[in-house]
Amino acid sequence: MQITSSVDRNSWNQTLLSLPNPHILQSFEWGAFKSRHGWAPTRLVFRESDRPRAAASVLRRRASLLPYAVVYVPKGPILDFGDEATLAETLVELERLARRERALFVKIDPNVPVENEAVPRLLRARGWQPSAEQIQFRNTMLTDLRPAGDDLLAAMKPKWRYNIRLAARKGVRVRAGSHADLPAFYAMYAETGARDGFIIRPFEYYQDAWGSFMEAGLAHMLLAELEEELLAGLILFHFGPTAWYMYGASRNVHREVMPNHLLQWEAMHWAKARGCTTYDWWGAPDTLEESDRMWGVYKFKEGFGGQLVQHIGAWDFPVSPILYRFYTVVMPRYLNLLRRRGKRDA
Description:
Number of strands: 15
Strand content: 25-35%
Oligomer: single chain
Helix content: 25-40%
């Protein structure tokens, strides 16, 4: 198999789109975005008889406090995971790259369903191991957008259909957002993070992510308003046949008019009209238990007809098992100890 690197945006994205299940985090634009935030991308194409068989956008950066690198293939590599020969050759090249880059490890987290037992078996045989650090969500929920609109509504829970109609009756309106709306969306996102207990990055990071993908035609903002007062919003990322509900935000006011229900319905409708066949809800619990922090989010998505899809999660190839353990186990424990001592002595 021939392995080449790609630096051209159009040819790279077209290569991805020719392979099964292309992902937005493997797009040229995602690598370019991460290159502005400490990562260096390398894009590898695996060809056989001039036909692409696999692709991997590989990100690397220096490891914290150590003269080594870490290598990450977000939501990749992209290939037919039923083709074990191609997968094996792809893994061999990723392992070689990690050694050339003096990496502590290389991490992958492809969207491989847990039902595929052959992939974990091959990974273990080559020295890969399940990662303790899941950078992306392990599981997700999917909605098939191919049915007609009425059938999509029929697949929802009755209360969800009622809330969609209620929002419309109460005067909630959904409009497309633009770059000018990014500061307001960020403020709402920060309010959501404070309410739901998750940490967000500075505005400049999201301004780059949201703005650059909107400019590239790969992201779309929708905002829900009541009498021109902003209530909720979301940003869909889309690539090939899939739209991802990657960012959502809402305020604490007028929640009784159910703006999020109408917002999601309009987002699904927009994605379907654009030609997407799958709506990826971007995240689901690791275990289906009410104690899971994402249980409420899961039930919300399930009400729209989202179907749970569980994946094998992230896997790491430790180039040096000793250094890998030091970096992933010993050093985090040491840093946590220093933090606890610092709080105690403050």
